[in-house]
Amino acid sequence: MASLLLKRRQGHALRYLLLEMAAHQRVAAAMSGFQTIDGELVPFVTGELALRSGTAMLIGGLLVGTVLSEST
Q: Which of 6, 16, 47, 52 falls between 20 and 30 A from 34, CA-CA?
C-alpha cells in the first residue's frame, strides 16, 4: 500500500513539474526580458543564463538572485 502512495505522489509531482515547465516556456517566449525585485529590467538572455546556472530564480514572476551583466 505504501508503494502505491509513493507512486501516486511521484505521478503528481511529475505532472506539476511538466505543467510548470510548459507555463515557463510560454512566459519566456512572450518576454523580452526579466524584471528584478528592485524594478531593474534584465535582458532575456542574461536572465536565462542566471536561471540555468542556478544563481537566480523566478519568484512570482520576478528574477531574484545574482545576475551578472553581459559585459563581465
A: 16
pTM: 0.52
Residues 38 and 21 in one domain: no
Q: What are 40's three cell numbers?
A: 531593474
DSSP state, residue 57: E
What is the full per-residue pLDDT of the chain (72 aa) written as tens digits?
Answer: 456 555 667 777 778 777 887 777 665 555 678 888 888 889 988 999 999 999 999 998 899 999 887 654
Residues 39 and 55 in one domain: yes
Range of the domain at 62: 32-72
